[in-house]
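User: Okay, second chain of the day. Same drill as before: sequence in, structure tokens out.
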Amino acid sequence: MSSSLMSRFLLISSVGIGSYFTGSYIERQKRLCDSDDYVSDGKEYPINRVKPKPALPIFATVSAASPIPVEEKSVVPNNVSRIAQIMRYGFPGLDNVRSYDDFVLSYDRRTRVAHWVFEHLTSERVKHNDAVDRSKCDFAPDESIHPFFRSVNTDYKGSGFDRGHLAAAGNHKADQKHCEQTFFLTNMAPQVGVGFNRDKWNHLERHVRKLTREYPNVYCCTGPLYLPRKEADGKLYVKYQVIGANNVAVPTHFYKVIVMETADKRLEMESYVLPNSKIDNETPLSMFQVPPETVERAAGLLFFDKIARTQLFKINGKKV
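Assistant: Same drill. Structure tokens below.
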């Protein structure tokens, strides 16, 4: 057979095989969409009938995914402008980004804990609101997350850890729904209770809210860290506990990186890293301030990348 005929034969064969696999894939997807359940390990699970829609564009290279019911007719979520406001200074990363009404997060399906959670705070949004009742909020799994990668309340039961907020409920008092959404388990991480979540971490959250008294706009990014520690053999290891049937990771540390915008548009930054352990209440928060580059290297993220560091007037209270 000549080389020309052989080339034609291979071309026709590849097209045919490609068409076969494409058709098979489309048919499988069609069957999945027509089914209300799927089976795994002999058990039947309901499929959450949602599909991702673009929650932006606000930047040419970014699109945040927001879970939207299939029945909705709107092509773009009605909170796009709010998301644009929250993420004004850039996304730290783009892995499994999910937008809620008043905060945005990137979810880590492996650890079942968010990579980061982003908030935009103002004095109006954090002030006391009689119409918002935290006691009516329930911790709940986010059903837009595939069951394989979802954390559930039983993961925390008996673990000895609190379901610790990343976006603090107290930061979202403008609307009852906003507060309720902070109780999705996608916004939770296992935190030591007494001495951390209920004490020093809470002090840091209150500090961030107090910043809105001085600055018209406060942008806060919060997340977990899994830092190495030297063991007895002299080597460094990244070691952390997991809890529950879904192996929810227990971070070794947590960070907050905050940008404050003054009335005359000057920008200041503060960054903190706290160990996920009992901390003496007398320890000042300033003891946990670190250079933002330290957090970025540890987290593998770039915070506020739309802001050049030369644009910052102060970092951790010191003039740049």
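DSSP finds eight helices and 18 strands in the chain.

User: Thanks, on to the next one.
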